């Protein structure tokens, strides 16, 4: 199974379309959205082509292929226009012999991994900074932000296939990788 991870779309139809184009090009089986789907938040600038209603419409067409987590900018009103669940603060999925802990990162992150066991993989967004590393006996991954990257990082996403997790820029170049 091939999984694609995006985080922090923040209502940009331009980058939501880029994410869907990449999802199709990568031939991923599931698109995992790690929060901050529709709203840009008060601390962020308006993203390119800000149109939360268009983002909702686009993503709803893929509802059967999306696993989503709530971010700190997501709310109940957002759930009213999305046809896939996205209000959970975290979710677990099994990938081979690994347990993936999916969250946005504003509650559970590298400094709060109390829900993880040895060998688990913490995958989160929120910081808009790509990360792929091992911490003690766990893995920490952040695909960065598809829309609003920080610290001079490029717009990015993650791909997990055959236990190799790669973080790529939107042109497909590998920025970071880790074998799980």
From TrEMBL:
<comment type="similarity">
    <text>Belongs to the metallophosphoesterase superfamily. YfcE family.</text>
</comment>
<keyword id="KW-0378">Hydrolase</keyword>
<dbReference type="GO" id="GO:0016787">
    <property type="term" value="F:hydrolase activity"/>
</dbReference>
<keyword id="KW-0479">Metal-binding</keyword>
<dbReference type="InterPro" id="IPR020935">
    <property type="entry name" value="PdiEstase_YfcE_CS"/>
</dbReference>
<protein>
    <recommendedName>
        <fullName>Phosphoesterase</fullName>
        <ecNumber>3.1.4.-</ecNumber>
    </recommendedName>
</protein>
<feature type="domain" description="Calcineurin-like phosphoesterase">
    <location>
        <begin position="1"/>
        <end position="161"/>
    </location>
</feature>
<dbReference type="InterPro" id="IPR041802">
    <property type="entry name" value="MPP_YfcE"/>
</dbReference>
<dbReference type="GO" id="GO:0046872">
    <property type="term" value="F:metal ion binding"/>
</dbReference>
<dbReference type="InterPro" id="IPR000979">
    <property type="entry name" value="Phosphodiesterase_MJ0936/Vps29"/>
</dbReference>
<dbReference type="InterPro" id="IPR024654">
    <property type="entry name" value="Calcineurin-like_PHP_lpxH"/>
</dbReference>
<dbReference type="Pfam" id="PF12850">
    <property type="entry name" value="Metallophos_2"/>
</dbReference>
<dbReference type="InterPro" id="IPR029052">
    <property type="entry name" value="Metallo-depent_PP-like"/>
</dbReference>
């Amino acid at each position: 199974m091939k999984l694609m991870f995006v985080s922090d779309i923040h209502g940009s139809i331009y980058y939501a379309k880029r994410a869907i184009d990449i999802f199709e090009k990568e031939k991923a089986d599931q698109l995992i959205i790690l929060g901050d789907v529709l709203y840009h938040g008060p601390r962020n600038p308006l993203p390119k082509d800000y149109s939360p209603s268009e983002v909702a419409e686009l993503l709803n067409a893929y509802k059967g292929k999306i696993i989503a987590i709530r971010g700190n900018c997501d709310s109940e009103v957002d759930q009213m226009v999305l046809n896939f669940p996205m209000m959970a603060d975290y979710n677990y999925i099994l990938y081979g012999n690994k347990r993936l802990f999916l969250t946005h990162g504003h509650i559970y992150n590298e400094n709060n991994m109390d829900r993880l066991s040895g060998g688990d993989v913490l995958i989160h967004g929120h910081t808009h900074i790509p990360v792929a590393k091992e911490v003690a006996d766990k893995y920490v991954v952040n695909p960065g932000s598809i829309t609003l990257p920080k610290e001079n990082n490029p717009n990015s996403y993650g791909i997990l296939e055959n236990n190799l997790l790669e973080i790529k820029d939107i042109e497909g170049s590998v920025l970071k990788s880790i074998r799980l």
